[in-house]
Amino acid sequence: MSKEKDSLQKPKIMAAETTDNDDNNTAYTPGVWLWDDPDHGGYTKFDDPTSNQIEDKLKDAIDKKTKGSIEVKLSAGPWFGLPKNKEIYVCVIIVDCTDPKRPVIQQARQTNTNSGYKRPIKRDPPLDPPLAKELQDILDTLQGKWEWKDDYGWKEYDLQTMSQIENSFQKKEKKVELSAGNFFSKQSGIYFIEFNYLSLPASAQQHNRKSHYGRWVRRIPVKGMEQSTEKKPGGMTEKQKEFFLKQDKHFIRKKHYAPLSIEDFNDQNNDETLKQNLKCSVCQEEFEEKDLIEKQNEKASEKKVKNEAAFKNDGNNDDEKNNSKREHKYDLSKAALNPKYLKDETIVGLKQCAYGHYFHANCILQALDANCVCPLCKMPYDVITGYQPEGRLYVTKARARCQGFNDAKDSIKMLFEFPGGIQNDHHPNPGKIYFGDLREAFLPNNKEGREAAMLTRIAFKRKLIFQIGTSLTLQQDNRIVFGSIHLKTSTTGGREKHGFPDDDYFTRFKDELKQKGITTALLTKEDHRFIDDGFPAAAQ
C-alpha cells in the first residue's frame, strides 16, 4: 500500500489570500500551533505560552526574510516549562519567508531529544503555497474536508477527491466510487467509500475491492461553511434577540411564566396546608398581595391570555386542595412586549411544572439564566447543554452479543474519541491541559438498543455525556470521565461490571436523559428508520 500512501499525502492548501499593500512590508496574521496526537483523534492545540513561543520565532523569521530551518527549544507553558521538560522538546520548522507577504511553511515537526520521537506539528491558519485557480475554487466552496487514516495518523485527501466525497455526502448517498484526483483517477473501480451518517460528525470507511483492506475516513467541517440544523429561539437572530431583551429582560423567559391569580392566592392564603406555597422558592421571602399581576397593573386583565383548560372545576371542590389536580390560570406565552406589564416582583409559577410552587419573576429569571431547569423539580425550560470537550462519536455494529438479549444477535458499539486540549473557564482547572481518551459503550442491536443509541447521539451532541474531572480508575486529575448519564461499557458482567444483563437499565437510562430534557419526542424520521430497520446493508 506504499503507493497509496505516497499518492494521498496532504495537499498544500492556502488558508487565506493576503492583500497587497505598498504601505506594509508584510501581510502577517497571527496563528496558533497544534501537535499531532494520533492516539486520541488528531491535532491538539498547544497551550497558549507554548504556541506563542513557536509563533514568535516564526514572526522573527518572517521579519528577517529567512529561508531554511528555524529551531524552537520549547520552554514555556505548564508542561514544557517544567524543569524536567525544559528544552527537551525541539520544534524544527522549514520556511521560505523571502517574500514576507507570502511566507510559506514547508514542513514542521517536534522532536523529543531524549527519546528521538518525532511528531508533526502545524499552524492554524496554515502558511502553504498559493493554489492553482481551479483548486482554490474547490477549496473555497468545500463545506467539509475529508481525511483518511494510515498507520501513522490522519492525512487529507487531495482536493479533487475531497470535492467528490463531499458532493456525495451532501446528497446523502450511501457510497461514492473514488475516481477523481491523480491517484484514484488511475484506479477505476477499485476504491469506494461507504458513509456512516449515524456517527457525529459523519464518518466513513474506504474499501479496496482487490485487497479487501479498509481504512477509517472522517469529515472535518469547514468553519463558517457548515449550516447549523439547530433552530434559534423564535427564529430570531442574535441582534433581534438583543434588541427585544433591552426592551424587556423577561422577553425570552416569560413564555414559561404562569402568574398567580388573585383567586388562587386567596384560596391558598385561607388554607393552612396550601399557605406554605406562598413564598418564593428561590429567595424564600413571603409573597404580598400587591405583587400579584392583577394588583400591579389593573389593565393587565385585558392583556392576559386565559388558559381555556385552566381550573377544570366541575363544581366539585374536593380536588382544589390537591395541587396535582389544579392548573395555572394565566399564560404569558402570547403576551405583548410591554416592560410595564410584568415586574421583577410579580409572583409567577412555571407552566410545565406541578401547580403549587412560585417565584418572584426576577428570581426565576436569574435561576433559569444560570441553569435552564426549574430549581425545585428540575423540569427543563430550554435545551440543556454541558461542557463536554470536543470529540467524535462513531456508531458501528459489533459481533459481540449483549448478554440477556436473545433477540439481538450482535451489538451496537459506540466509540467516543477525544483529543487532548486546554481546559476553559467551565472546566475544573482552566488553562491546564486535559488528556485525550477513547471510550466505548455497547447496546443490544434490537429496537430498544437502537432507540437508546439514537438518544445517546442527542446527549453527545448536546455535550452531556462526558466531563473533565478525576478518574477514579486511574487516580488522575484532568481526565475525561463519564457524567450523570450512565452507559454500558461491556456486553457482559451485569450491573456490577457496567455491563449486561441489567433488567431495568433502559428505564433508568431514559429517566437520566429526561432530567436533561432528552426524550423520544426529539427523535427524527431518520432516527426512527434506523430504530425500525437497523443498520443498512454493507455497500459492495
Features:
single chain; 540 residues; alpha+beta; six-stranded antiparallel β-sheet
Written description of the protein model:
With 540 residues, this protein is of the alpha+beta class. Helix content is 23%, strand content 24%. The protein is built from 14 helices and 24 strands. The strands form 7 sheets. A 6-stranded antiparallel β-sheet has the order 2-1-6-5-4-3. A 6-stranded antiparallel β-sheet has the order 8-7-12-11-10-9, covered by helices on one side. Strands 13-16-17 form a 3-stranded antiparallel β-sheet. A hairpin with a 5-residue loop joins strand 5 (104-112) and strand 6 (118-124). The two termini are 21 Å apart. The model is unreliable at 1-25, 228-233 and 300-321 (pLDDT under 50).
Can you give me a brief rundown of this structure?
The chain has 540 residues and is of the alpha+beta class.
- What's the helical proportion of residues? 10-25%
Oligomeric organization of the protein chains: single chain
Q: Report mean pLDDT, rounded to a whole number.
A: 85
Structural class: alpha+beta
What's the helix and strand layout?
Layout: H1 2-7, E1 32-37, E2 42-45, H2 48-63, E3 67-73, H3 77-80, E4 89-96, E5 104-112, E6 118-124, H4 133-141, E7 144-150, E8 153-156, H5 159-170, E9 175-177, H6 181-184, E10 191-196, E11 203-208, E12 214-221, H7 238-247, E13 257-259, H8 262-269, H9 293-296, H10 300-303, E14 305-306, E15 330-331, E16 347-350, E17 359-360, H11 361-370, E18 392-398, E19 411-418, E20 421-422, E21 433-434, E22 437-444, H12 447-461, E23 466-471, E24 476-482, H13 505-515, H14 525-533
Antiparallel strand pairs: 1-2, 1-6, 3-4, 4-5, 5-6, 7-8, 7-12, 9-10, 10-11, 11-12, 13-16, 14-15, 16-17, 18-19, 19-22, 20-21, 23-24
